[in-house]
Amino acid sequence: MAWDEWEQLKADATARGSTQMQLNQFPADQVGGSPEGAASADLKSHKRAWAKAGEDVKGLKDGIGKAVTTLEAGQAGLGDTSVCQSAAAQKELYDSWKKYVTGVSSRCGVLGALLEQAGHDLAKPDSALKQELDALKVKYQDTEAVGGQARGK
């Protein structure tokens, strides 16, 4: 998953001993009382980039939706799963993957909306955005794999 890859990239950067980034900021009262003052001239963030990132992540839902449809079509006609162990295992695997893929689709929608909103709310502090991302990570935390395990064997 992308979260695992992100965590690995962070761990690799830490292992290399990369330096920390420090952003210096003027206190609000030294910028002439306005948050749009001279202090913001050096660091720029474009709403369009945030919106594009959000749209792209939300766009992943289309491909995922097609995958779910294909998954459902492949399951059609399986029939009664109680008479055949392999059919029962197939059904269990299908249910597991459908739940997982549906969760991924939901995560893409929520993350995409969060990225778009971050672009609209550029005045929001980084800590607030980090809290929202952390809450998203907790909400969609991957669970133990279901299905396919040997039962009592």
Q: What can you see in these coordinates?
A:
- The protein has helices at 2-15, 47-75, 85-120, 126-139.
- The protein is built from four helices and no strands.
- Helix 3 (85-120) runs antiparallel to helix 4.
- Mean pLDDT is 75; it is low at 31-40.
Short description:
This protein has helices at 2-15, 47-75, 85-120, 126-139.
- Total DSSP E strands: 0
Note the beta-strand portion: under 5%
Question: Helix share of residues?
Answer: 55-70%
Name the structural class.
Answer: mainly alpha
Radius of gyration over C-alpha positions, nearest whole angstrom: 23 Å
Q: What would you call the shape?
A: elongated
Mean pLDDT: 75
User: Unreliable stretches, pLDDT < 50, 5 or more residues?
Assistant: 31-40
What gap, in angstroms, lies between the N and C termini?
30 Å
* Major sheet: none
Series of secondary-structure elements, N-terminal to C-terminal: HHHH
Total number of helical segments?
4
Write the layout of secondary structure elements.
Elements: H1 2-15, H2 47-75, H3 85-120, H4 126-139
Helix pairs in contact: 2-3, 3-4
